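sanity check this:
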Amino acid sequence: MYAMWRLQVALCTLSVLSLSSGGESKARSCSEVRQAYNAKGFSLVNVPHQEISGEHLRVCPQGYTCCTSEMEDKLNQQSKLEFEKLVEESSHKMRTTFVSRHKKFDEFFLELLDNSEKSLNSMFTRTYGKLYMQNSEVFQDLFTELKRYYTGGNVNLEEMLNDFWSRLLERMFQLLNSQYHFTDDYLECVSKYTDQLKPFGDIPRKLKAQVTRAFIAARTFVQGLMVGREVANRVAKVNVAPACVKALTRMLYCPYCRGMPGLKPCPNYCHNVMRGCLANQADLDSEWNLFIDAMLLVADRLQGPSNIEAVIQPIDIKISDAIMTMQDNSMQVSAKVFQGCGQPKPSGIGRSARGISDVFSGRFRPYTPEERPTTAAGTSLDRLRAVWRTMQHSVIDIKEKLKESRRFWSNLPDDICAKGKLTEPDEEQCWNSHTKGRYFPEVVKEGLTNQVNNPEVEVDITRPDTLIRQQIMALRVMTNKLKNAYNGNDIYFQDSSKLSYLLIFALYQLHTQILRATNKTCGCMTAATIICTSAPSLLLSCLFFSWEQCLLQQR
C-alpha cells in the first residue's frame, strides 16, 4: 500500500512539473519563503525571489523550489538544533522535578537529623548535667556517623550502632563503678559481654532494626532521585543521527523549499519521524518504569510505621530509657562482669559526694510545654515535628511527580508532536513529505526494533545507542538497590568477602583496559560506574552487560 502511495505521489509530481514547464511562463514568487527564512535569522543574500529548478537539492523534492543548496544546508542544521531544543524542552519539567525534589528531600532530612541531635543534647544536658557533658562525644559521634552514612559515606550501620552501645556500656560501667580502676584491656573485656548481659535491655536491638531500615530507605531514596536526575539529563541531550536530521529537515523545512513555509506536517507523519529519531530513548522506558515503581515502594516505606520520624524524634527518649535500664541492672551486670573479667583493682578514690545513683535517678520524663527545652537557635521539639510534616508533604509530592513520569520516554515522540504544536490537525491540509495532502503510511510502534519498517527514518536496529545502554544499566542497578532498601537490606555491605570484591574489581580494571586498548566506549563508564563500583555484588553483572553491548557493536 505504501509503495503504491509513493508511486502515485511521483506520477502526480511529474504531471505537475510537465504542466508547469509547458503551461506556465512565469515561476511562482518566493516572497513568503524569504520572509520566513529571514525570520529564522538567516541572511537573504542569494535567496531567490522566484522559484528555480531544484536538481541541486539532496533532501527536499527536486521540483521547482525556493531553496538553494546553501539554504538547504542551513535548514538542515536548523532542524537538528530545533529537534534538540524540542527534546530538552519536553523533558525539562520532568528533569527539573528530580533536581528540585532531590534538593528538598535532602535539605529536610539533614535538618531533621540536625534538630534531633540538638534536641538530644538539650534534654540530656538538663537531665544528666555534667556527666553528659563529659561524655557527650559518644552521642555526637553517633549523629556524625548517621549523617555520614546518609550522605553516602562508607559506614556499616549495624557495626556503627553496635560500637555506640559498646562505648556507652564502657562509659556507664566506669561511672557506676567509679571506686575501681579499669585498664583498656579490662574495658575491652566488658564490651564483649554486651550481647550476653543485655545491660540496656532489648532497646539496642529494636533501635538498630528501626534505624537501619529507616536510614537505608532514606539514603537509597535520595540516591534514586540523584540517579533519575542524571539519567534524564544525559538522555535529554539526544544524539541526532544523520538519517534523523535528514528526516527532520524533510518534515520541518521542505515546505519552505516548495513555497509553503506556513504548512505544518501531518500528525502521523510527525509521529513516524519522531519515533524513528527517538527509537533508542523509547527502549529506556521499560527499565525506567521499573525504576519509578521501585522508587514508589521506598517512598511508601518512608511514610509507613517505620518512617524516619518514628525513629529520629524519640531517639533521645530511647537512649535515655536504655541508660535507666543499665542503672537498674547495674549490680547484676557488674557482678557478672567481675566474674568473667576478674576483680578490678580499687582506684583509691571513693564515690563522689553526690552518688552516681542519685545522678541517674533523675529518670528522663516527658517535658511539660513550659519545661520543653529549646536550643540556642530557638528550635524546639515543635520545630522537629514541623520539619517532619514538611518532609512528609515533600514525599507525597515526589510520589505524585514520579507517577507522572511513568512511560515518559516511550510517550516522548507523541508528546513532542502534540505539545510542540508542530502538526496540522486537518489531515487534508498538512505536509505529507512531498506536498500538501493526506499522509497514508501507518504509524510504526515505538522502540528500536520496530523502526525496521519506518517509512521516514532509516534506523540501524543492529547498533543500539551506547549512551542509552549505559543509562539502562544505571537504572537496573539502582532499581535493585531500591528493592533491597525496601526490604531493609543495604547491598553495599551484603558482599563482605574482601577476596570476591578484589576479584570482581580486578575484572573491572581489566575490562577498562581492554576498552581503552580497543578504543571502545561501551560499558559502565558514566552513572553506572559510580553505582556499580560502590556495590560489589552488582559489579560483575554490570561487566557482563557491558561486554554484551561491546559484542553487539562489533557485529
